[in-house]
Every structure is written in C-alpha cells, then in structure tokens.
Amino acid sequence: MNRRRQNRNKTKSLYLWHKYIGLTVALFVLLLSLTGVALNHTGDLQLDKSYLSSGWLLAHYNVSNPSYLKSFSADTYAVSQVDDLLIIDQHIVAPIERPLIGAVTFHDFILVALKGQLLLVDSDYNVVEKIGRNDGVPILLNRVGKTDSGQLLFETPSNILSVDENFIQWSPLDIDFSKWSAAQALSKNQQSELNQLYKSHVIQLETLVLDLHSGRFFGRYGELFFDFIALLLIFLAGTGIWIWLRQRSSHQSH
C-alpha cells in the first residue's frame, strides 16, 4: 500500500512538473511553430523579397548609412548610386557593381552609364537591357552626354565616341562637346531619403523570421535559451509518454 502511494505521489509530482513546464514553454512553442511554418513557405509569403524598414529593427541589425552616394539628373529623373544599389527617383532598380558615371534619357528609356557598362531602364524602373564590353562599350568610359539632336556621346581618356541607336556601331568623333551628364549636389533631406531607402533594402524579412526561429535575434544568450527550451520540450515528450504508460498500466490493473 505504501509503495503504491509513493508511486502515486511520484506520478502526481511528475504530472505537476509536466503541466507547469508545458505552460511555461507554450509561448515559445507557438513562436517556433509560426516561424517554422513561415520559413517553410518563404516563396509563397515572399519573405525573401520583403525587407525591414522599421528604424529600431534596422538599428538592432546595426544597419548604418551607406558610405558612397552619387546622383545625376536625366531630364526629370534623379539617378543615384547608393553603395551597390541603383536608385531612380524613389525606386530601387537593381544592384550594381560598377561606379555610376552619368545618365541621360534615350527615347522612352533612361540610359544609365556605368564604368564599362550601359543599362537601359524603362519608365517602370525595370532594367530591360545591359550593354557591356562584348557590345563595344569602352571599359574606360568617363562620361556620357546627349546632343540637342538626341545623339548619344561617350567620353574616354583618348577620344569622344558616338554610337548608333542599336548600340552596335561605335565611331570616334573630332568635336568639342560640353553638355556631359554631371553629378548633382544633394540636399540634406535628399541624402536622408536615399539613406533610409537604402537601409530599408538591406535585411530581408526572411532573415528576421529565421533569427526569431533560432533565437539569434536575442543574441548569443538567446540561442542558448532556445537550446534550453528544446531540452524542456524533450523533457515534456518523455514525461508525457511516461505518465501515459503509468495511467494505462493503472487502468489495466483495475
């Protein structure tokens, strides 16, 4: 009788531990479940195409202002390079790996000139064509401009070049030309807007969800704490099975 009572007390004590630990980790189980489901459907939820814009979240990830900012005017368009991003007006167009040297309008497009590469951008801010060295673009391209008649001109260290409308035939010209695309001074407000736009395109939402799921969002101790939660879940699984077996054995004995 005493042994049966002792076993009953042990089972009751273990049941209480099981219950209170279960209540404690319930919130974390919910967090792990929600973030796990989200990560499993990253493509459907477009987590890899959405970015953090909240100031305190960007500060948490130590996202700082860009180190390089240069801007040109192409008629009514403001074409800027902010570190490795090409931004036109307030639209992030594409990542770029070469320095921006100028921009002009060309028919219904914006011609963005980089060192050794040209980009044609449509009115919806999509890059529709890239023109590079294999197409005859000089690698030492310094400046780009456009004559009053709409002819495109390009300056290299040795000469001035023109090109046909299909960007196939490049020809040197012996002319004086001064209407080159030139960098524009930006106001503090414009710089601030570009800085914020850049910073809001650095950390993907997928990164935040993954860091919440693993505990990395809370730093090194967050990872260790989530490891501890995992051990508690293992404990709950073990005690749950043990309690079920004890109850099943008790019912069978009766």
- The amount of beta strand, in percent, is 15-25%
Biggest sheet: strand arrangement? 1-2-3-4
Helix content: 40-55%
Radius of gyration: 31 Å
The appropriate CATH architecture of the largest domain is 7 Propeller
Number of helices: 6
Low-confidence stretches: none
Distance between the termini: 15 Å
Order of helices and strands: HHHEEEEEEEEEEEEHHH
CATH C-level label of the largest domain: Mainly Beta
Would you kindly provide a written description of the structure presented here, covering whatever features stand out?
With 254 residues, the protein is α+β, with helices and mostly antiparallel strands. The chain has 2 domains: 2-50 and 205-252; 60-200, 7 Propeller (Methylamine Dehydrogenase, Chain H), CATH 2.130.10. It is built from 6 helices and 12 strands. The chain has a 4-stranded antiparallel sheet with strand order 1-2-3-4, covered by helices on one side. The longest helix is centred in the N-terminal third of the chain and has 39 residues, at 2-40. The radius of gyration is 31 Å and the shape is elongated. The model has no long low-confidence stretch (mean pLDDT 85).
Features:
254 residues; alpha+beta; Methylamine Dehydrogenase, Chain H; four-stranded antiparallel β-sheet; 6 helices; 12 strands
Short synopsis of the structure:
The protein is of the alpha+beta class and 254 residues long. The protein has helices spanning 2-40, 42-45, 55-60, 188-199, 205-214, 220-253, and strands at 69-74, 77-82, 85-88, 91-95, 100-106, 109-114, 117-121, 127-131, 143-146, 152-155, 160-163, 170-173.
